[in-house]
Amino acid sequence: MTHHLLSGPEHDPARDAGHEDAPPRVGFFTDTSVCIGCKACEVACKEWNTIPEDGLTLSGMSYDNTQSLGASTWRHVAFIEQSVRSAPSSPAAVPTSDGRTELPLLSGGGGGGGGVSGGEVRWLMSSDVCKHCTHAACLDVCPTGSLFRTEFGTVVVQDDICNGCGYCVPACPYGVIEQRPSDGRAFKCTMCYDRLGAGMEPACAKACPTESIQFGVLDELRERAALRVDLLHKEGVTEARLYGHDPDDGVGGDGAFFLLLDEPEVYGLPPAPVVTTRDLPAMWKHAATAALSLMGGFALSFGLAALPTLSGRTATGRTAPGRTPAGRTPTGRVLTALTARTLTARKGRT
């Protein structure tokens, strides 16, 4: 068990957070190769968590009306249209004329996707969600304890004690968490924490008709995902890759990871995410060193400036202006002369 790490591999973040009898860590594995873009996960998420609607108008970006994750969008289904000519040689999920989605594994070019522009366009569909990072910067920077690590290893926002400071928003390397404009509080996916406590799976995974969203013990999901990638590679989909599964990456591995069919940037994901609080200890160390150096410089400057006043001489050895070699000022000489005259006058009277 590790203690309060800010970066690097961490096997059991729940125990590190103080859950001594924590169950195995759970998470999501989203296989985008079988996502059909039905948005059942979006609907189920909103219904179970009573999330307000966030716009019913089309955005002009294919069939995507939500565009990104946010305070009122905890699951976001991306519709990415690509020209087959610019896509990899083995295209991904392409809807056919009967409305089904297939992987044209062995066909170059348009393959079996005659249902969309004669096979010249492919759709990459992916259901995005909060990553529930092993090292969650949003949790690290929260000043009120509104964000906390659950016994399942997930990260949850307690909106009733969120003060709306917004520190968590820029801290997230994925841009997931957001403040709701109506009251300023932060919201994001909780992985249906209330359902997990009752022994149920999250609503989005329960509603997914193709098992694109799979929920379970994180270590088991990683093994299953590796086998799935090997299968796709053998069948010719060489661009298939995992994203967010590696415990040695910049966030210590994600609690929600993905099988992608193109570069992460195509899906709006950062190629190499890093927890934003990773360098805090080094930053504080450098700041303390700089502060001590500055204070030492000031002390040295004042000390050198005070030396002529104390010694009566300048740094070059010359007598300071206004002082005699003995250190007496002109004013002191005048007072001494006046005192001598007064004593002489007194003696003359006597």
Would you kindly provide a written description of the structure presented here, covering whatever features stand out?
With 350 residues, this protein is α+β, with helices and mostly antiparallel strands. It has nine helices and twelve strands. The strands form five sheets. Strands 10-1-12-11 form a four-stranded mixed beta sheet. Strand 3 (94-95) and strand 4 (101-102) form a beta hairpin. It is elongated and about 120 Å long.
Quick description:
The chain has helices at residues 13-16, 40-49, 137-141, 168-171, 193-197, 203-207, 218-234, 280-311, 330-349; strands at residues 26-31, 75-83, 94-95, 101-102, 121-129, 147-149, 155-157, 178-179, 186-187, 213-217, 241-243, 256-260. It is of the alpha+beta class and 350 residues long.
The average pLDDT is 80
- Level of helix content? 25-40%
Largest sheet report: 4 strands, mixed
The number of helical segments is: 9
| Oligomeric state | single chain
Order of helices and strands: HEHEEEEHEEHEEHHEHEEHH
User: Which secondary-structure class do the elements indicate?
Assistant: alpha+beta
- What is the tally of beta strands? 12
Q: Give the strand order of the largest sheet, numbering strands 1, 2, ... along the chain.
A: 10-1-12-11
Shape: elongated
Q: Low-confidence parts, pLDDT < 50 over ≥5 residues?
A: 86-95, 103-118
Radius of gyration: 34 Å
Give the termini distance in whole angstroms: 98 Å
Percentage beta strand: 5-15%
